[in-house]
Design goal:
The chain is α+β, with helices and mostly antiparallel strands and 60 residues long. The chain has 2 helices and 3 strands. Helices cover 30% and strands 27% of the residues.
Length: 60
């Protein structure tokens, strides 16, 4: 059975954010703005997204 995936878009810059937020962006695998990555939909990834909702969005 294939695991569920979640698509996340990095749409706002993390320049003026706390270091923890920058580390979360890096941990999700983002390297540039407006990038969309696909991650496994589990509690840890959901928690990372929930910590920085002002920087990322979930796309369909």
């Amino acid at each position: 059975m294939a695991e569920k995936k979640i698509r996340i878009q990095y749409y706002r810059s993390a320049i003026a954010t706390p270091v923890k937020h920058k580390l979360i962006v890096k941990g999700l695998g983002f390297t540039r703005l407006n990038q969309i990555v696909e991650r496994v939909d589990n509690d840890s990834v959901r928690g990372m997204v929930k910590a920085i909702p002002h920087l990322v969005r979930i796309v369909q």
